[in-house]
Amino acid sequence: MIGFLIALISGALMSVQGVFNTQVTKASGIWTANAFVQFTALLVCLAAWLLTDRGSFAQVFQVQPKYMLLGGAIGAFITYTVIRSMDALGPARAVMLIVVAQLAVAYGIELFGLFGVEKQPWEWRKAIGMAVAIAGIIVFKWK
To answer: Given this model, what pLDDT does residue 4 score?
Structure first.
């Protein structure tokens, strides 16, 4: 149950963050806003680290395979693409497309067992759920 609530909070925060970041971009520029977002995230993470576990930063570099360390770089492009999509489509349409893309890619990662994730079997109900989500986008966009 806690995972469900955390996921709902995450989705809500991502939507609010996207709107905030889009507004900051209008005042500064997309890469300036993105750098500010990543810098403030760094400050929050450092503060949380100081107040909690204080594990060794060197442990991060023990991860295998090393390409797993690209999450932060990917995060910069996530911020960029969220800002651009929200500016072009508006928050609701952009978030719907973002969420469906996340769902499709996550299911693909599970199906093929990519990046060390345990491979899962094909399930028609999940494919139907994806189709329903895509149909929801079409209905939402329909004028």
So the answer is: 86
Whether residues 76 and 124 fall in one domain: no
Residues 6+ apart with CB under 8 A from 113: 119, 120
Cβ distance 124 to 132 under 8 Å? no
Radius of gyration of the chain (CA): 18
pLDDT > 90? residue 1: no
Average pLDDT over every residue of 87-103 = 91
Q: How far apart are the C-alpha atoms of 15 and 23, rounded to whole Å?
A: 13
Residues 83 and 95 occupy one common structural domain: no
Number of domains forming the structure of the chain = 2
Q: Which residue range forms the structural domain that includes residue 52?
A: 1-89
